[in-house]
Each structure stands twice: as structure tokens, then as C-alpha cells.
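Following up on my earlier thread - several people asked me to post the actual chain instead of describing it. Fair enough. Here it is, all 186 residues.
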Amino acid sequence: MPKTELSRDAALAALEKYNKDEFHIKHALVVEGVMRYFANLLGYGDEEDFWGIVGLLHDIDFEQYPEQHCLKAPELLREAGAEEELIHAVVSHGYGITVDVEPTHEMEKVLFATDELTGLIGAVAIMRPSKSVQDLELKSVKKKYKTPNFAAGCSRDVINRGAEMLGWELDDLISRTILAMRTCCD
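Reply from S.P.:
Thanks for posting it. Predicted structure:
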């Protein structure tokens, strides 16, 4: 993956142009932090900014165009000055859901696997007395993961498919994502 020409400030401005809801902004910031963590963990530290900006912009079209999620994103991202590699990476997280753009790079697979999972982990965290991921354990997430009605909007199927794409056990994906979220949440 290349380095992006799009600055973080420009990416944040583009995100905020199309997203006003605090929840969506926070989700984007969490996914940005998670992507930066994984870039460094997996040996792509020199691409950390690219990974982070992909995470920041991954839902650029979701708030205003939920029915066209990942379909409207290329237009909005081009308008913001994003290069095609960044657009492909963003769009690929909708693979098999709204688009047929398959995640091919490890970064795209991480985004696919962790996007929904960050929502689930966040929901588990706010149910705890501390309301924090800092003391959250794998077993707490696994317990809620098995409850379909809990954080029902977080697709377990997508999370499972993401773990498979990466070749990771589900427990490993969850544990690593908790650690990633500890670096950027609260």
C-alpha cells in the first residue's frame, strides 16, 4: 500500500463534511486508531498514516447515504482528493454486503474484520461499571458475542469472515482488537 497524499486534517474535514452525528465521528476515530495499531503490529509501520486514514474515512458515506454505503464513497473520496488505492481500501470493507470489491491487502482484511468488531467491543465496554475497554477481557466479549440480540447491528457473520480472511482464530482477533482499542479509546 502506498502512502496517501491526503493529509489527516483533510481526511477529517471530509469525514465531518458528510457526518455530523457524534457516534459516527467517534466510530471513525476508533477505527482510525485501531488501524494505526494494526499497521504497527503487523509490520506496516511505514504505512501507518495510510492505514489510519482508511480507518478514519471508511464510513464517509454511511450517515448521509446508508442505502448506498460503500457505493457513494468513491465519489465523496475523489472529491476529497483521495487516490484510487485508498478508495479501493475503503470500499472493500463492504465486500459481500453492498459491493463486490474484495479485500486483498492485509490492511483491507483488517478493516473488514475490525469495523463491526469495534462496535461490539464498544457496546460491551459501556455495559461495564468502568465503561472502559481498559479493563475489558476476552471472556466478557465472547459472552456477549454469543448473544445475538446484544449489539445486533454488529454482524457476527462479517466478523467471522474477517477472521477467516486474516487466517486468525476469532479469539485472537477479538483479543488483538481489544488491545488496539485500549490505545485509542477513553
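Residues 8-182 form one domain. That should answer part of your original question.
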